[in-house]
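Because discrete structure vocabularies remain unfamiliar, we first show an illustrative case, written as a sequence plus integers encoding its fold.
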Amino acid sequence: MNRGHPRRTSRRVAASVGCTAVLCISCAEATSPDDLGIVRRDSGIVNPLDVIGTGDTSVGGDTIGGDGTTPPVDAPTPGSVDASMYPAFLHDGRTYDQERDYIAWEGPVSNVTVAHRDGTTLPASEGGGSCASTCNESITRIDTGGRVRGRFTYVQTFSVQVAAGGEPGIGTAVIEACGMEIGRISLAGGSTLGFTNQPQPAFNVPTPGDCTWSIRAEGGWVPFRAVTVTYRGGAPPTVDVRVNGTNGPLVVDAPASYLVSWTSVSAASCVASGSWTGARDLMGSVNYTGVTAGAYTYTVTCTNGGGVASDSVSVTVNRPPG
């Protein structure tokens, strides 16, 4: 939040990725968007998503905002998803479980530190070192009855990182995407904990539209570390950022009130920078009130498989006359 900006309301969340052992894929044929559990973008979603701290835990509900709102356990009806209840669309590439803008928790889910040895590397935020020997890393623990979930759009392939090994009480990871169960992975057995991408090969997403995904634990706990997606190719996106419905710049006296809004076309994910930060939905608005004197720049950068587009708007808030 900007210095001089009062609290603004909206929400956001994050994700992780998987491991080995027995993999059973059961994907029912889907012939329509409704069959795929697709979240349509024609639902009029305009709510931006706000930041959540990385130290949050959840027992029986999501840690997505201070108002106590809890998302539904089941995926939403296509066309009815509320951006305030679901995290931001996954960005291209790997999203780690600590990136809580993109992954929501339900039920008994928490952060734990584990030692693992595998072909992964630590995220840049934890040093980026190789785990070929051993890494001690903070990951997400999904206990029986718990679930992590999110959504994506314009994606070609999808996989998660979960870990198998001899840790006590490890169970089965059930992975779902686009309304289908795409992997049921028994993680028990072996000795050293190790993460792998699952399913193998990665799930080929059957639609360029919006889908929800989730990982839940059965019969024990599941170590979850990251989600990986690849975007589809095509034309780059476009994005338009406005203040009070204009391209700006806006010059006003303090205390100032104004509305910053943005829209995008063919984007897969968007992120804010400048005088605001964090993941944003594909369209939305934020209303500012009581803004103190200063210079503010609001930038939104949107990405898809074809490229990147950015747009900005500036606001100058002058000291009140006299």
Q: What stands out?
A: DSSP finds no helices and 21 strands in the chain. The radius of gyration is 21 Å. Residues 233 and 305 are 4 Å apart (CA to CA). Residues 1-84 have pLDDT under 50 and may be disordered.
